[in-house]
Amino acid sequence: MELTERFDWQGRRIAWGRAGSGPAVVFCHGTPFSSLVWRPFAEALSRDFTVHLWDMPGYGRSSKHAGHPVGFGVQAEAFAALLAHWGLDRPHVIAHDFGGAVSLRAHLHGGVPYASLMLVDVVAIPPSGSPFFTYVGENPDLLGRLPAYVHEAILRAYIQGASHRGLRDADLDQLVRPWTGDDGQPAFYRQIAGYDERFLEENERELGRIDIPVRILWGAQDTWLSSDIGHRLRKLIPGADLALIDGAGHLMQYDAPIPLMDQIRTWLPPRS
């Protein structure tokens, strides 16, 4: 499932793709990833659902213009505009990492209705971010000028650390590739520099207003975001349930794809 379509929004070019038929399911990726992490799941679900993938502006195959902010607020606005462009009314949304905060903000502050929401190891409430994330946020211009081979070595080690089981070389290569080259390297550091935890604080204050079905999944071995955050989310979101997936780190899509797919299948409504 390739992102063959483009949506122009406020000077940005958003890459997206759609496949299948049936109820709408939309996947939101996180950072420093792209829709690539969801592609196998979207392809499998396309037999029973109309699945939508997209790369946030500044990520993957979408535009990476140096002058465009890429924080939570902008991404939530972009998501709302894209859903309107698709003409979707109350899709099922499945979000990972940064995509959790984006989808929550679009719903809580943008008034975008969903049929249901699945949150997978999400950035959603404070605190968040590793020491490396903090350091990058304080030195984005310096790190953006690193020699390419040093940058790639750092990037590979960083992304590899999101997996509990360890990523295959081919998978790691795919995840690293968008952040290399003249456009990708500075874009990687910009998206971290644009991180603003105040949006997470706003989300946290509003979570009690959610009145749609919510399921939270968390890798039991997630070293990027502790499962304690998942437990806090479950308490803050009315009616939400939580499942911990053993053997999975932050990249559950690669560490535990079968348990993750089982959770998604049992969560989404059966096709009539």
UniProtKB/TrEMBL annotation:
InterPro entries: AB_hydrolase_1 (IPR000073), AB_hydrolase_fold (IPR029058), AB_hydrolase_sf (IPR050266). Keywords: Hydrolase. One of its GO terms (molecular function) is hydrolase activity. Gene3D superfamilies: alpha/beta hydrolase (3.40.50.1820). It comes from the Bacteria. One of its GO terms (cellular component) is membrane. SUPFAM superfamilies: alpha/beta-Hydrolases. Residues 23-257 form the AB hydrolase-1 domain. This is Alpha/beta hydrolase.
